[in-house]
């Protein structure tokens, strides 16, 4: 099955700096890679995703890159703000009519943005 | 849209008691997922349904756990009898499975404490 590794487990940055979280996956058939943000006491919230037919996707201060050859993908947050502080999860899934349908999550990265 | 609704938000029960967690998926979604989150194991998929039919329950820890989806707008996760090691946050998520998309949206979770 799919195995998703996520690094680092904790990350502390100063407000305004950039933050990068990296994930690797094992199943070359994986083709959908979402990122979730989980704030304290809340459920994970989908913030951005990328599919295997593109290499990069941006949404304001957030971007995700995908390297299918190396089987890794990364989340980039620029101009970080204190409200970006949360736990971030990456996930991978192989989607298709005959494939499994479960999201395989990384262990999470606790991001702290200090003012 | 109200999003995925879960109840109760918090549940405290004694070991040996039956616990029932409830979930209402987003209207129009055809897939529903139950996850468990703990510090030690992270986010684990317990079971998922597609069009009210259980597709994969390999993540259900043991026979004490059961899940049902009697219709497209309601699902339950039952633990009987409960044990202290079942203490965790249980999330329900839903998605619209199709040829594209498949983004999963999580509910706020139920924090279960078994004493």
Keywords:
heterodimer; A: 115 residues; mainly beta; six-stranded mixed β-sheet; five-stranded antiparallel β-sheet; globular; B: 115 residues; four-stranded antiparallel β-sheet; 11 strands; 0% helix
Question: How would you explain this protein's 3D organization?
Answer:
- The complex is a heterodimer of chains A (115) and B (115).
- Chain A has no helices and 11 strands.
- With 115 residues, chain A is mainly β.
- In chain A, strands 2, 4, 5, 9, 10 and 11 form a 6-stranded mixed β-sheet that branches.
- The mean pLDDT of chain A is 92.
- Chain B is built from no helices and 11 strands.
- By secondary structure, chain B is mainly β.
- In chain B, the strands form 2 sheets. In chain B, strands 2, 4, 5, 6, 9, 10 and 11 form a 7-stranded mixed β-sheet that branches. In chain B, strands 1-3-8-7 form a 4-stranded antiparallel β-sheet, with no helix packed on it.
- Chain B has strands at residues 5-7, 10-13, 19-24, 31-38, 42-50, 53-56, 65-71, 74-79, 88-95, 105-106, 110-114.
- Chain B is globular.
- The chains are: A mainly beta (115), B mainly beta (115).
Sequence of secondary-structure elements of chain B: EEEEEEEEEEE
* Strand element count of chain A: 11
Category by helix and strand content of chain B? mainly beta
What integer is the average pLDDT of chain B? 92
Number of strands of chain B: 11
Largest sheet of chain A: 6 strands, mixed
Instruction: Bin the strand percentage of chain B.
Output: over 45%
**How much helix is in the residues of chain B?**
under 10%
State the end-to-end CA separation of chain A.
Answer: 41 Å
Query: Quick check: average pLDDT of chain A?
Result: 92
Radius of gyration of chain B over all CA atoms, rounded: 13 Å
What general outline of chain B do the C-alpha atoms trace? globular
Oligomer: heterodimer
Structural class of chain A: mainly beta
Q: Name the pair of protein chains with the most residues at their interface, and give those residue counts.
A: A-B, 20 and 22 residues
Q: Radius of gyration of chain A over alpha carbons?
A: 14 Å
């Amino acid at each position: 099955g799919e195995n998703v590794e996520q690094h680092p487990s904790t990350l502390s940055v100063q407000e305004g700096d950039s933050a990068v979280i990296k994930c690797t996956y094992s199943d070359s058939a994986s083709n959908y890679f979402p990122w979730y943000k989980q704030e304290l006491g809340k459920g994970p919230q989908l913030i951005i995703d990328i599919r295997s037919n593109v290499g990069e996707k941006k949404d304001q201060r957030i971007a995700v890159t995908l390297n299918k050859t190396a089987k890794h993908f990364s989340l980039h947050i620029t101009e970080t703000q204190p409200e970006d502080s949360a736990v971030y999860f990456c996930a991978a899934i192989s989607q298709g009519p005959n494939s499994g349908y479960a999201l395989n999550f990384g262990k999470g990265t606790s991001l702290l943005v200090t003012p | 849209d109200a999003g995925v609704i879960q109840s109760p938000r918090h549940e405290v029960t004694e070991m040996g008691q039956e616990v029932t967690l409830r979930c209402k998926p987003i209207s129009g979604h055809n897939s529903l997922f139950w996850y468990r989150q703990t510090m030690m194991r992270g986010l684990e998929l317990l079971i998922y349904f597609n069009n009210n039919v259980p597709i994969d329950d390999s993540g259900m820890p043991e026979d004490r756990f059961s899940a049902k989806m009697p219709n497209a707008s309601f699902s339950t996760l039952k633990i009987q009898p409960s044990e202290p090691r079942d203490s965790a946050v249980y999330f329900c998520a839903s998605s619209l499975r199709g040829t594209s998309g498949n983004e999963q949206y999580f509910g706020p979770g139920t924090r279960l404490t078994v004493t």
